[in-house]
Amino acid sequence: MPRAWILWLRDHFEEAVCALLLLVMALVAFVNVGIRYGTNYSFAFVEEVEVSALVYLTVFGGAAAFRKGLHLGLHFVFVRLPLSLRRAVLLLSMSLIVFVFGTLAYYGIVQMRDEMALSTLSEALQVPQWAYTLAVPLGSLLIILRAFERTRVLWHEHE
């Protein structure tokens, strides 16, 4: 893979995953509608695929938003604080992000372990359920990573 592609993928990984997921969701829904219209039958698994893809889409989209600083914030107030308070706010917000998404990742892993131990399968496709649950800890860890990156950028911008 050329170096330019690797750099592009590093900077746009989440967006690429989200675009691929949206493409798959749209194609699966389109095929299902076409088959239902033409034959009066429906693919039962389509809802399972779309709901599971939507969970992955949500966490990867959230990580992309953290990386770009697109989540709601009080930027108007933040930039008017003294430098020491800005840094304290950055540390506090990063601590809260690590706590919330770390807790989410932990309980996602606990749920995955339970699903593996019980050999839980999805309803329609009989896929191991942990493959769908993996989105929660994976996305949470990715969000923590992207939040660290964004916090580092903001830390250096406000020196």
From TrEMBL:
GO cellular component, one term: plasma membrane
Domain Tripartite ATP-independent periplasmic transporters DctQ component positions: 25-152
Protein topology in the membrane: Multi-pass membrane protein
Biological processes, Gene Ontology terms: C4-dicarboxylate transport
Source organism, top-level taxon: Bacteria
Broad class of the protein's primary localization: membrane
Keywords carried by this UniProt record: Cell inner membrane, Cell membrane, Membrane, Transmembrane, Transmembrane helix, Transport
Location relative to the cell: Cell inner membrane
Entry protein name: TRAP-type C4-dicarboxylate transport system permease small subunit
Taxonomic source organism: Desulfosoma caldarium
